[in-house]
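Onboarding guide, step 5: your first structure request.
Type a short instruction followed by the sequence, for example:

Predict the 3D structure of this protein.
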Amino acid sequence: MKLRRKAREEAEVESSSLNDIMFFLLLFFLIASTLANPNVIKIMLPKAKTTSAIQTKPFILTVKFDENDATKSTIQYFIDNDKTPVSISKLNELLKKRNDEFYDEKNPENRLNVVLRLDKNLTVQQMVDVMEIGANLGIRMVLATDKSK
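The system replies with structure tokens like these:
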């Protein structure tokens, strides 16, 4: 008597839909990573050997040359990654307003921190002109740099 074994079916995992899921995850993370970049205005920062981070939420001021000006004589000022430039007089007003909002009478040492993101091709005088505005308003200004390798 010959007994026949039953043919067993093997379990299989369908993986054709995993390709679609992985593609959508990759697309999501690529888009999310480009939106999360805080430094939207591209400039070349000067290099420094050591850097340190500040603990409070900073007010970012970016200063660069106008890209449309071939003579590199027009300077543009951008506040908190807003892509519309402001004039130097408007910059003074905005810094004064932000400083007044930030000032605490109970703790006068608590001052506004402004992170200066200056193009490395700016002259020292142009940097001092911007820092002078902060000094007149009693604002603490910190120069952003790239850490050199």
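Each response can be followed by summary notes, for example: The beta strands are 47-48, 59-65, 75-79, 113-118, 140-143, 146-147.
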